[in-house]
Design the sequence.
């Protein structure tokens, strides 16, 4: 392993089941704990929550710049492991990240994140996604409505499973209203 994790380690969100020592070292992008190519097996065992997806996209952008010896779509597939991507999708994501001069917005900077397994907001204690979380998500996914709906659909599935494990039985229409309806309304083109 060449290099130190430094400040990069502070940016990597720790997920349920993942050991905090499993962080990347730049520019080789090997894990500091197990020397596997990062994200290593242990890090991948964590929960693919909002924080990890945002961090992975940000880190993918950095890794594409560092690992120019690898095809960019291969780097995208390696780092965005929680979302299966076709060849065309991986190429499109890679192109978008390579064109961007600034790092992508980071949803983890908002205080309004989900408290699992109850799915309340960590800041205002309302059902997540609360109003401020919805506004942050719209900013992060601006111009990417399909990605927003995919992300919220995944969060709906996680919430449904976790609430069910707690003995709650939310109606599917209620979960759809809470997680997806607001986003569909917000991204629907205005009719003039």
Sequence:
């Amino acid at each position: 392993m060449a290099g130190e994790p430094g400040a990069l380690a502070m940016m990597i969100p720790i997920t349920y089941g993942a050991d905090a020592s499993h962080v990347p070292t730049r520019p080789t992008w090997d894990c500091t704990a197990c020397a596997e190519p990062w994200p290593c097996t242990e890090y991948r065992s964590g929960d693919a929550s909002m924080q990890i997806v945002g961090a992975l996209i940000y880190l993918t952008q950095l890794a594409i710049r560092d690992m120019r010896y690898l095809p960019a779509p291969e780097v995208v597939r390696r780092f965005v492991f929680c979302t299966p991507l076709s060849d065309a999708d991986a190429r499109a994501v890679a192109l978008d990240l390579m064109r961007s001069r600034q790092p992508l917005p980071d949803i983890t900077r908002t205080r309004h994140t989900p408290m699992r397994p109850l799915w309340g907001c960590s800041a205002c204690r309302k059902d997540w996604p609360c109003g401020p979380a919805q506004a942050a998500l719209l900013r992060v996914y601006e111009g990417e409505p399909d990605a927003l709906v995919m992300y919220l659909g995944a969060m709906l599935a996680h919430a449904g499973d976790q609430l069910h494990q707690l003995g709650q039985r939310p109606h599917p229409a209620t979960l759809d209203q809470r997680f997806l309806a607001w986003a569909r309304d917000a991204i629907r083109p205005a009719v003039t």
Notes: The chain is about 50% helix and 5% strand. Helices lie at 8-11, 41-44, 50-66, 72-79, 87-99, 131-140, 145-165, 172-187. Residues 145-165 form the longest helix (21 residues).
